[in-house]
Amino acid sequence: MDEKTPLVSEKETPPNYPPLDYITAAREHGLPIRQSGPIRKGPQPIELPILAYMKSHRVILASASPRRKALLAQVGLTNLEILPSTKPENLPKTDFGDPFEYVRATARQKCLDIYAQAIKENENDKSKGDPDVVIAADTVIVTRAGQILEKPRSETDHIRMLKLLRDTRVHRVLTAVCCMAPKADASHPGYEIDSLVEETKVFFAQETDGLPDDVITSYVRTREGVDKAGGYAVQGIAGLVMVEKVDGSVDNVVGLPVRKCLQLCEKVVFRQGQESGGESEGEEEF
Predict the structure, then answer these.
(1) Which residue intervals of the chain are DSSP H helices?
(2) What is the pLDDT of residues 43-62, one digit of tens each?
(3) Cα atoms found within 13 Å of the Cα of residue 172, Cβ hemisphere only
């Protein structure tokens, strides 16, 4: 064959290659065929003034919780400085009138501790500057009888805790958020601070409805809930095998009510000196 002779003449058309077997079978049975398309890009980041501010300033999350960090990362706050408070969480529960006061006081204590620590460190090392926003949070479980539960202390305590939550069916998750920012006019005390408490009700399945003792024991041995208030992770296995329903904010149960947290940051940064616009708090009947 001459090298200049084309493999297919202009008057000829290339042969139609037989379709793949699965395509033929699908057509024979009248099934629709989805054609491959371009890869879709993920959603664009949400744009809010407070997020723009926090992305360009020094923001400290006073918590070692990877869940709180991940929740804030979902709204674009991936550059947070993590500086957990090492101050003992030993406030006497009997000193407070209700669980709302207790959890709020604990979050406030963490926030003040880390803010003071960051200011002191900046006196010796000016490279970072003073903190522009500090966020602290604390989460507790409140049983139907009003008992405050935090993290389980042992496997035995863990099993006992989950059985209690199951047998009483419904409990409350309280997360206190406290935010601080330096005052623009440097007036006393030099910072703006505010806090709130978010409440969510969580309903557990019952023993006769798929949650017998052996399921609880098996869950405890996964170690998923060892570092969590109440001893369970609603975003993990527990949400599939133990939790029946959630009444309220799910991210609050995970550890941080993100929308309320951003509102609080906006208040201490942009609306300094104004009264808190947070919702009133108080106990409500189950």
Answers:
(1) 21-28, 49-55, 66-74, 99-124, 155-167, 213-220, 237-241, 250-254, 258-270
(2) 788 899 999 999 999 999 99
(3) 21
Average pLDDT, the chain: 87
Whether 167 is catalytic: no
Using a 10 angstrom Cβ sphere, with 0-12 exposed, 13-18 middle and 19 or more buried, the burial of residue 175 is buried
Give the model confidence (pLDDT) of 209-250 as tens digits: 999 999 999 999 999 999 999 999 999 999 999 999 999 999
Tokens of 101: 């006061």
**Domain membership flag for residue 15:** no
Q: Round to whole Å and give the CA distance between 14 and 276.
A: 75
Q: Are 229 and 210 in contact (CB under 8 A)?
A: no
Note the pLDDT tens digit of each residue in 119-172. 888 787 777 788 999 999 999 999 999 999 989 999 999 999 999 999 999 999
Q: Which amino acid is at 204?
A: F
CA atoms of 150 and 146, how far apart (whole Å): 13
Cα–Cα distance for residue pair 27/29, rounded to 1 Å: 5
59 in any annotated domain: yes
- Residue 239 belongs to what domain range? 50-271
- Which CATH number fits the domain that encloses residue 78? 3.90.950.10
- Catalytic residue chosen out of the listed positions 2, 130, 138, 227: 138
Nearest to 205 by CA among 175, 236, 246, 172: 246
Other C-beta atoms lying within 10 Å of the C-beta of residue 203: 14
Q: Give the SS3 label for residue 135.
A: strand
How many structural domains is the chain composed of?
Answer: 1
